[in-house]
TrEMBL record:
Residues 56-193 form the L,D-TPase catalytic domain. Keywords: Cell shape, Cell wall biogenesis/degradation, Glycosyltransferase, Hydrolase, Peptidoglycan synthesis, Transferase. It comes from Paragemmobacter amnigenus. It comes from the Bacteria. It holds the Pfam family YkuD. InterPro entries: LD-transpeptidase (IPR050979), LD_TPept_cat_dom (IPR005490). Pathway: Cell wall biogenesis; peptidoglycan biosynthesis. The active site is at residues 153, 169. This is L,D-transpeptidase. Belongs to the YkuD family.
Length: 214
């Protein structure tokens, strides 16, 4: 039997690194993620997760900078994220009525007002593409018929993943947002946990004698 290939200098296996190789996506090719921007913590992976929500639910933990998609059997697919100010400002529940491939982007009026030198040039919008801040996919969050203007999206800056960033909502590696989008149906429920509940559901509930688990 042939020996398994050695891990990359990053410590990641070839199988994990393959998830972040260059990948064709319609007429575009998503560039590979430089391994220096990856780690075992940041690579998408299945983990134990004990949220009281049905499979398919997306749970965002901005403080921990992780996003979880609930799977059966107390499991979840975990993705590393970067979080901008809008990502910290939102908590609670929403639904995803639709998603877009290679979406266009326009900075908010507040972003233009706050930093016109950086954002005013994009006041008419920026078409979708490899340099667009929303990356390869965007999932749009609504409460009822109201757009929350909160997005889960890709990024043109893979170095930012796992960081607090200067703008935006919740961003993933482009390879990861494509993977998440492929597994997210219209109407998917999203739960964004507040800072004081960060890390909730990452460990099994502790049973108490003659009572319900806590």
């Amino acid at each position: 039997m042939a020996a398994a290939p050695p891990p990359h200098a990053s410590g990641l296996s070839p199988e994990v690194l393959a998830h972040y190789d260059a990948m064709p996506d319609g007429e575009r090719t998503i560039p590979a993620i430089d391994p220096k921007y990856l780690s075992a913590e940041k690579a998408r992976q299945e983990v134990g997760y004990y949220a009281p929500h049905p499979p398919g639910t997306i749970i965002v933990d901005p403080e921990a900078r992780f996003l979880y998609q609930v799977m059966p059997g107390n499991r979840a697919m975990r993705y590393a994220v970067a979080v901008g100010p809008d990502g910290y400002a939102f908590s609670g529940e929403a639904t995803i009525p639709y998603q877009r491939d290679w979406p266009g982007w326009r900075p908010t009026d507040n972003m233009i007002k706050r930093d016109p030198g950086q954002y005013a040039q994009y006041s008419d919008g920026l078409p979708g593409g490899l340099s667009n801040p929303l990356g390869a996919r965007a999932l749009y969050l609504f409460r009822g018929a109201r757009d929350t203007h909160y997005r889960i999206h890709g990024t043109s800056n893979p170095w930012s993943i796992g960081q607090a960033t200067s703008a935006g909502c919740i961003r993933l590696y482009n390879q990861d947002i494509v993977h998440l989008a492929e597994n997210t149906a219209p109407g998917t429920r999203v739960v964004v946990v507040p800072k004081e509940q960060s890390g909730l559901w990452t460990h099994p509930p502790i049973p108490i004698p003659n009572g319900e688990p806590t």
